[in-house]
């Protein structure tokens, strides 16, 4: 069973930056496609960003393009989401997710992922 643990959330002001981290309890994450999602109160889980197994491909939802950057360090079993120019509408619980090992693909829907973290709260004040 793969366990994912997010960290790095917090309360910031509009325009500030945060870096979220996701740690995985596996020997190596190098074959796991990974994604970040967010969920605000009363709203459905929303795709934020995804990265392929070697980090050569990334994908973002339109509202975060140019502000957020997803990355991975396979040697450290870590994934990251750098969030710049945060806005109040970015306020949500952010969750990392991993798909079972595959060497192909990049995925945008929650149903594509097999393992989830508990989430970390990001609150952006205006």
Provide a brief overview of the structure.
With 126 residues, this protein is mainly beta. It has strands spanning 4-7, 10-13, 18-24, 34-39, 46-51, 58-60, 68-73, 78-83, 92-98, 115-116, 120-125.
Task: Write the SSE topology.
Elements: E1 4-7, E2 10-13, E3 18-24, E4 34-39, E5 46-51, E6 58-60, E7 68-73, E8 78-83, E9 92-98, E10 115-116, E11 120-125
Parallel strand pairs: 2-11
Antiparallel strand pairs: 1-3, 3-8, 4-5, 4-9, 5-6, 7-8, 9-10, 9-11
Which sequence of SSEs, written as H and E, runs from N to C? EEEEEEEEEEE
The strand count comes to 11
Tally of individual helices: 0
Tell me the radius of gyration: 13 Å
Distance between the termini: 40 Å
**SS strand fraction:** over 45%
Mean of residue pLDDT values: 95
In this structure, how is the largest beta sheet organized?
Answer: 7 strands, mixed
Helix content: under 10%
